[in-house]
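Thread: "does anyone have the structure for this chain?"

Original post by V.I.:
We have the sequence but no experimental structure in hand. Need at least a predicted one for the grant figures.
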Amino acid sequence: MAKVKVLNHPLIDHKMSIIRNKETDTKKFRENVNEIGSLITYEITRDLPLKDVQVETPICVTTCKELSKDVVIVPILRAGLGMVEGIQTIIPTAKVGHVGMYRDEKTLEPHEYYAKFPDEIVTGTVLVVDPMLATGGSASAAITAVKKRGATDIRFVGLVGCPEGVERLNHDHPEVDVYLAALDEKLNEVGYIVPGLGDCGDRLFGTK
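Reply from O.Q.:
Generated one for you, tokens below.
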């Protein structure tokens, strides 16, 4: 069964209050989403596998550690893009794939409309990134998409989630760990997370 980890940290909580505020403008919203992405990265990579390497310091040769697997960031278009830069600030060698989903107006089920991934998705640690885990439909479909391309080490990374979305991922992908900056109360009747922060994509890119 997947683990759900809510990343309680004073700096994350402080920045979450900024992006939740409806008065926060696009520039400040985008900056803080990126900064939260950087802060989250420390926790989501805590157990990445390491290998020994020989390094020659100015004094002598010694054994050090380096990552033994590539990291691949897969943002779900378009809101997921808002967290990529923050994660890459901490892991500048990370590759980036992209997956786009649209919702069928009749069935309300997500469908893939774009997908492009680096080869490292097969052997690397894959971070599927979307700021909002609401119904969980898009996140589940994106995880299915990377699995179809051979990914086996997958983690979901978000800012705000709710019990409905967590339950969907636990049901569809029980082996995928879920990392969130906040776990909110519920979904409302039109599918927004409560209290949430509104439409993250619109707020990131200044659209309506």
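V.I.: this helps a lot. The helical segments are 10-20, 26-44, 81-90, 137-148, 163-172, 200-205.
O.Q.: and Residues 26-44 form the longest helix (19 residues).
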